[in-house]
Amino acid sequence: MTSTLIWIAVALLVIGLYLSWTAGRLDRLHSRLDAARAALDAQLLRRASVAQELATSGVLDPAASIVLYEAAHAARQAEEEQREVAESELSQALRAVFEEAQQVEAVREAPGGDDAANELAEAVRRVPMARRFHNDAVRAARALRRHRKVRWFRLAGHAPFPLAFEMDDEPPTALADRGGA
Q: pTM higher than 0.85 for the full model?
């Protein structure tokens, strides 16, 4: 009888340790997800800020300046529910404005334009990477949260189900080609 109770206690202890380890792993994934989201938000804000600065610098023609400024302003001011759409529209505006290499060259030739073009190219290049890291963290957290043991024992607690950030982040080819220049 005592031997059976000891084995039951050992089994419960092993199960408890396993569930605790799984909960810790899920917590680390959620922390990684929060860090990746913060990095994505920072890169999106940087891209919108640089685009807005460039639009107000007077280097671009007036129509391009208006298009770029409005898209960047909308991206910076968007509510969380509309953020993906606003950021996609900023990507489309960047592609429309910097569709041709001549526009990038015109920006580079203006005083201080070379730095502005390099900064915009860097910001545009980093957004897809940050989004990829965020979505990878989302995939990992979702995969673990789908396990029965996580659902049955409610190991995720009250954390919201992670959502991927889906947006159009295709960079303008003229900026992408010149990003390292």
A: yes
